[in-house]
Design goal:
The complex is a heterodimer.
Chain A lengths: L10 E4 L3 H12 L4 E4 L11 E2 L1 H13 L18 E5 L7 E8 L12 H12 L2 H9 L1 H14 L11 H14 L6 H21 L12 H6 L6 E2 L5 E2 L3 H9 L7 E3 L2 E6 L2 E4 L4 H6 L5 H15 L5 H4 L7 H7 L4 H11 L9 H14 L8 E4 L5 H12 L3 E3 L4 E7 L4 E7 L4 E3 L2 E5 L5 H4 L5 E10 L13 E5 L9 E6 L11 E8 L4 H12 L1 E2 L2 H5 L7 E12 L15 E4 L9 H14 L23 H9 L7 H4 L6 H5 L1
Parallel strand pairs in A: 1-2, 1-16, 2-12, 9-18, 16-23, 21-22
Antiparallel strand pairs in A: 3-6, 4-13, 5-22, 7-11, 8-11, 9-10, 13-14, 14-15, 17-20, 17-22, 18-19, 19-20
Chain B lengths: L9 H31 L5 H13 L4 H17 L2 H21 L4 H13 L5 H14 L4 H14 L3 H14 L4 H14 L13 H17 L4 H11 L8 E7 L4 E10 L8 E5 L2 E3 L3 E2 L8 E7 L11 E8 L4 E8 L29 E4 L3 E5 L17 H17 L4 H14 L5 H14 L4 H23 L3 E3 L19 E3 L20 E3 L19 E3 L22 E3 L11 H8 L5 E3 L1
Parallel strand pairs in B: 11-12, 12-13, 13-14, 14-15, 15-16
Antiparallel strand pairs in B: 1-2, 1-10, 2-6, 3-4, 3-7, 5-6, 7-8, 9-10
The chains are: A alpha/beta, B alpha/beta.
């Protein structure tokens, strides 16, 4: 593999998160020779999406906290006298406090499988095409192996040794605080025991008919490929920068989107729909006539609040929530506007920011549907891949599972001139773009990070039942005490291609104040109830039941300034990981800014020319034209398939 | 630079485009020419279909070519076997669909589809409904498609309930949809037929209340959307009143009989005929309008021959039958000097009916020696509330309350204000008179573009109120002074008025309809802006006319007055014409029979 890599590029991008991928695409589009590498076996970094087995492997990696250092050729001897090296980290420290809970009944009685099987499986499921193809040929056997793996995951048995104490403590806390407590461990244990004794015969059955209202863990495992579990939970604002960019650059053709179908609010212990569009207000049964008018009137004003400064100038000094009280809005409406439309909190936001946020929300309404948001089918992780694909179409070269040992800096000019990769190959380039998790502690010793608390749940039904069960919802639960942050809940239905039939995939996100579980569990308990056998018999269960839950913290480096890194040469640019916000504007802005530094005065991701406008003559253009003939035929899986080394130029020849 | 694509410049692109367009135009023109030639030569074969489809595919609005296609298809129908024909129809339907995709609002295309479906022995209506649903999915306000859908639904006999549910779904998506609301107004009466209200009838109260809630949701959500207000008005409105003869008047002096009808008609044209019987034997008479013009009018009159007024019988009974309106009325003229009251037609007459309870539809009757009449009372609910009314005043009352609530939130919404005014009129015009006038003022301020319309509407309402008051007072004198009137209407209601005061208003004309006031003796119209007197014509009893301080600027404007035989006193002070030299002489010449003209 190493032999095939050219030794010189214009831009080397390390990390395949969204901002890096956009920059790679933009550079490649404007004619730069781009090498895009990622040390991981999948695209997207912390922006990735995983199948269920994929996420289990990902978990395993972090729980093991493995410190696998492959033996790599030493780079030290390649550094010349007038050079020095910036060593890159081999270990990802962006994910912490991973905790996983399984509530679904586990109708398996196999022994816990050893870690080796999991490791093997991990590689096969999420890595490159040859193995994957082999596996799809042996689907049953893979399922088997997955099933056995599943036994190992459930709760108490294996979460890595250093997490076990933490679990214990949490359980104690929960039982202490809550009257109606759910001791996860005992529940699961008893459930699994019951199941084992009862369902042994059916569990063996491969064509397991799904029982009504019952999803078992083995079904989740079996249908694991139906899941696309996002590490970051974001949506696209219909008029946000990312949508504009996708359209402008024509990258949108590589992806499909669905409109979020409803905005929800959680109020007085109840989930209700927030009427935000004109049609919603018209159809709403919960608002009185007068409330409808007041809400519409206020929202209409927000649409062009700048034109009526007299209406809000006097309130600029106070918070948005105080300002709302001065408007003719009932408490009901104030809650909707503050938490679900402006999506701000009681204390954090002043009048003008609140109005701005409301306006932005309203501006996005109606472009693609009755809510302002879009969700990419198959998960957020599709988006970086779409841009990578565009980069590859214009000649960018892709290497996954390809780590970089160090950046080589010229002592005299203080410029970076090359990288040395895991094979010891020295690759020259003019510009270097590095995702910040690749920097070692030496580089980041002064950097302060924030944290994002994340939770991913698999549930058995929606938090708010409606005529259609294919709803995609966003729900904001405001922080209860001062100092805690609002929790954003996004519930995805199977038609988003992110979860199996009969389940919902729920993402919770908030800015961390403690560990993810401490931050998010109260909200999870408000909205959901753990899955237990006893409650199945009870028809009166109101809340959706939890089948599986995952908590983790992700590092938020979005507001780290470049200056806080030690000794970065001017041609090394830093991309941050995902931020906590709902939209993707931050990533796009970052990408555009960095692109302008690399290619000043170049258009940022202009639309590709029409095939008929391309002039085909001269030998030098052969390669490009052949590229273009490939585009229409190429199917959307291309980036995935060409994971290890994707160069369509070569592929087409 | 490496990897850079070489693309055409914008000039090259423009040039390529231009050439392409030129080529297209050439093809288009030659194809059109060929089609016309073939049509002229009567060669209506499949080649014409082919050629027209090329052109219509690009421009579906070429109506002549659709006609051409129809001619061809009609010819082929006779020549082809059923199988061939079926294939032909199938391609034609497919072609129409592709044309609709080019232009979903092409009259010609939709019409052609109607025509084609109408000719098919076994049209697939389900498919057509599906097609409509798809086009309305894309544009829910495409009224061409709505039209076609109504056609299809009628042909396929789709149950109104299903169609209603369809309008529901589209209104839910976007309630600014005239077509959808309109369709509801057609479907609901079908779905809930009421025994005595015909196809345009009223709805049962529970349905009505549900619709009102729906439409209220709409105008509380967006009060500036007109479609909902129009539907609201339909819901609260009622069907046209039944045809009726409102008033019948016989005068011995003028030997004349006058009738007033509930709607303007052109007597003598087609089906509109008025039959007169005197003492039960028919009498052929010549009907004319009061102002002598032959056009639809509320009021018609005829001269009576001397024989029908002679004193040989103690009384004469006149009956007028309006054949088309299926209505009739009769009145009696007595012999001798004293006026007396009789009770014909078997109905009980109340000697002093006005101030107390007046039973609805009770005719007012008078029979005298000089004149006799029979008329409906305007004080009964019927007359002036046609704009907006409904069986239950409780419904109106609650509508009024919610509109007032909305008005508090939206003080400047014209639709809300107008609806409040209409509701108040429907509830009780006299009780709400003052409030109504205030709302008019607000409405005029927020909607200055329609100030003149509102002034006229206000004038109309005030005039109605005055008529009601006059009738309650049981007099033939009508005071309309100081009311800011801009227009005179309902004049056909004033057939019996003898004294009319129109002073201190903003009238610019005494309109032709004024000629209907056959009993008018004194007319005061001082201090207006009158510059035309078309209506003061052939008023048989007019003696005194005051027109001081108006805008009459030349003597010839007074020409119509010459036809008023009894006019004796004319006040013209303060008109521009008084300034001119020789006015008095001119006027004396123009109006020789008027004793006294004051200038």
């Amino acid at each position: 593999m190493a032999d095939t890599l050219p030794s010189e590029f214009d831009v080397i991008v390390i990390g395949t998160g969204l901002p890096e991928s956009i920059i790679a695409a933009a550079c490649s589009r404007s004619g730069q020779r781009v090498l895009h590498v990622d040390s991981r076996s999948y695209y997207g970094g912390n922006w990735a999406s995983f199948s269920f087995s994929g996420i289990l492997s990902w978990l395993k990696e972090y729980q093991e906290n493995s410190d696998v250092v492959n033996e790599s050729p030493a780079w030290q001897e390649q550094i010349l006298e007038n050079e020095e090296a910036i060593v890159l980290s081999r270990k990802d420290k962006t994910i912490q406090h991973v905790e996983v809970f399984c509530y679904a009944s586990q109708d398996l009685h196999e022994d816990v499988e050893e870690a080796g099987a999991l490791q093997k499986n991990h590689a096969s499921v999420i890595s490159g095409s040859p193995t994957e193809a082999a596996h799809s040929a042996y689907l049953p056997s893979e399922d088997e192996s997955l099933c056995t793996v599943s036994c190992e995951m459930p709760t108490e048995q294996t979460p890595s040794s250093d997490l076990e104490p933490a679990l214990e403590i949490n359980d104690v806390e929960v039982t202490g605080e809550k009257e109606k407590r759910y001791d996860d461990k005992t529940c699961v244990k008893s459930a699994s025991e019951e199941e084992t004794s009862e369902n042994v015969p059916t569990a063996e059955d491969t064509a397991l008919p799904p029982k009504k209202n019952r999803i078992t863990y083995s079904q989740i495992i079996k249908e694991g490929r139906r899941f696309n579990i996002d590490l970051v939970s974001k949506l696209l604002y219909s008029r946000g920068l990312l949508i504009d960019l996708l359209i402008k650059s024509n990258v949108s053709r590589y992806a499909e989107f669905k409109n979020i179908t409803r905005i929800l609010a959680f109020r007085e212990g109840r989930v209700e729909q927030v009427p935000c569009s004109r049609a919603d207000v018209f159809n709403s049964k919960q608002l009185t006539m007068v409330e409808k008018r007041m809400l519409m009137k206020f929202l209409t004003f927000c649409m062009e609040y700048e034109k009526h400064p007299d209406e809000y100038k006097a309130y600029e000094e106070i918070t948005f929530s105080e300002y709302l009280k001065t408007q003719k809005l009932t408490p009901n409406l104030r809650y909707f506007v503050l938490h679900s439309i402006a999506m701000t909190s009681e204390t954090a936001c002043n009048t003008v920011d609140g109005l701005k946020a409301t306006k932005n929300f309203l501006r996005c309404l109606g472009r693609y549907g009755n809510t302002p948001f879009l969700f990419p089918l198959y998960g957020q992780g599709e988006l970086p891949q779409c841009f990578c694909r565009m980069c590859a179409v214009f000649g960018g070269i892709y290497c996954l599972r390809h780590s970089v040992q160090c950046l080589v800096v010229d002592k005299e000019s203080r410029k970076c001139k090359a990288i040395i990769d895991q094979f010891g190959q020295r690759i020259i380039s003019k510009h270097f773009l590095v995702e910040d998790s690749y920097f070692s502690e030496n580089t980041c010793s002064h950097v302060q990070y924030r944290q994002i608390s994340r939770s991913v749940l698999i549930t058995d039904r929606s938090v708010l039942k409606m005529d259609s069960d294919q709803q995609i919802s966003i729900l904001t639960v405001p922080g209860e005490e001062p100092g805690t942050f609002a929790v954003r809940v996004i519930e995805l239905c199977p038609s988003t291609m992110t979860c199996m039939k009969g389940t919902y995939l729920v993402h919770l996100t908030c800015t961390s104040s403690k560990t993810a579980r401490e931050d998010l569990e109260p909200v999870v308990q408000k909205l959901f109830t753990p899955y237990t056998e006893t409650e199945i018999e009870n028809e009166e269960v109101e809340k959706p039941r939890l089948l599986w839950a995952l908590y983790f913290n992700m590092r938020d480096s979005s507001d780290v300034s470049r200056n806080s890194y030690n000794d970065l040469p001017s041609n090394v640019y830093v991309c941050s990981g995902p931020d906590c916000g709902l939209g993707n504007d931050n990533a796009v802005k970052q990408a555009e800014t960095l692109f302008q530094l690399i290619c000043p005065n170049e258009d940022f991701c202009p639309p590709p020319p029409n095939p008929e406008d391309i002039i085909i003559d001269g030998d030098s253009l052969q390669s490009e034209t052949s590229e273009f003939s490939v585009i229409p035929e190429a199917n959307s899986e291309t980036p995935k398939e060409s994971t290890s080394l994707g160069n369509p130029e070569e592929a087409s020849q | 630079m490496h990897g850079r694509l070489k693309v055409k410049t914008s000039e090259e692109q423009a040039e390529a485009k231009r050439l392409e367009r030129e080529q297209k135009l050439k093809l288009y023109q030659s194809a059109t020419r060929t089609v016309f030639q073939k049509r002229q030569a009567g060669e209506l074969d499949e080649s014409v279909l082919e050629l027209t489809s090329q052109i219509l595919g690009a421009n579906p609005d070429f109506a002549t070519l659709w006609n051409c296609r129809r001619e061809v298809l009609q010819q082929l129908e006779a020549q082809k076997s059923p199988e061939e024909l079926a294939a032909l129809v199938k391609t034609e339907l497919g072609f129409l669909e592709s044309c609709l995709r080019v232009n979903p609002k092409s009259y010609g295309t939709w019409h052609h589809r109607c025509w084609l479906l109408g000719r098919l022995p076994e049209p697939n209506w389900a498919r057509e409904l599906e097609l409509c649903a798809r086009f309305l999915e894309v544009d829910e306000r495409n009224f061409h498609c709505w039209d076609y859908r109504r056609f299809v639904a009628a042909q396929a006999a789709v149950p109104p309930a299903e169609e209603l549910a369809f309008t529901d779904s589209l209104i839910t998506r976007n309630f600014s949809n005239y077509s959808s609301w309109h369709y509801r107004s057609c479907l609901l009466p079908q779905l809930h037929p009421q025994p005595d209200s015909g196809p345009q009838g009223r709805l049962p109260e529970d349905v009505l209340l549900k619709e009102l809630e729906l439409v209220q949701n709409a105008f509380f959500t967006d009060p500036n959307d007109q479609s909902a207000w129009f539907y609201h008005r339909w819901l609260l409105g009622r069907a046209d009143p039944q045809d009726a003869l409102r008033c019948l008047h016989v005068s011995r002096d003028e030997a004349c009989l006058t009738v007033s009808l509930s709607r303007p008609v052109l007597v003598g044209s087609g089906t509109e005929t008025l039959l007169l019987t005197v003492d039960k034997s028919p009498l052929a008479v010549e009907w004319r309008t009061p102002d002598g013009r032959t056009r639809p009018s509320h009021v018609w009159l005829c001269d009576l021959p001397a024989a029908s007024l002679n004193d040989q019988l103690p009384q004469h009974t006149f009956r007028v039958i309006w054949t088309a309106g299926d209505a009739q009325k009769e009145c009696v003229l007595l012999k001798g000097d004293t006026a007396s009251i009789s009770t014909p037609c078997g109905s009980t007459f109340h000697p002093c009916p006005a101030l107390t309870l007046v039973p609805f539809y009770h005719p007012f009757l008078f029979s005298g020696r000089q004149e006799g009449w029979c008329r409906d009372s305007a004080t009964d609910e019927q007359l002036f509330r046609c704009e907006l009314s409904v069986e239950k005043s409780t419904v109106l009352q609650s509508e009024l309350e919610s509109c007032k609530e909305l008005q508090e939130l939206e003080p400047e919404n014209k639709w809300c204000l107008l609806t409040i005014i209409l509701l108040m009129r429907a509830l009780d015009p006299l009780l709400y008179e003052k409030e109504t006038l205030q709302y008019f003022q607000t409405l005029k301020a927020v909607d200055p573009m329609r100030a003149a319309y509102l002034d006229d509407l206000r004038s109309k309402f005030l005039l109605e109120n005055s008529v009601l008051k006059m009738e309650y007072a049981e007099v033939r004198v009508l005071h309309l002074g100081h009311k800011d009137l801009t227009v005179l209407c309902h004049l056909e209601q004033l057939l019996l008025v003898t004294h009319l005061d129109l002073s201190h208003n903003r009238l610019r004309a005494l309109p032709p309809a004024l000629a209907a006031l056959r009993c008018l003796e004194v007319l005061q119209a001082n201090d207006n802006a009158i510059e035309s007197l078309d209506g003061v014509t052939s008023l048989p009893r007019l003696q005194e006319l005051s027109l001081c301080n108006n805008r009459l600027w030349q003597p010839t404007l007074l020409q119509p007055l010459a036809s008023c035989p009894r006019l004796a006193l004319l006040h013209l002070q303060g008109n521009p014409l008084c300034q001119a030299v020789g006015t008095s002489e001119h006027l004396a010449e123009l109006l020789p029979s008027v004793n006294s003209i004051l200038t």
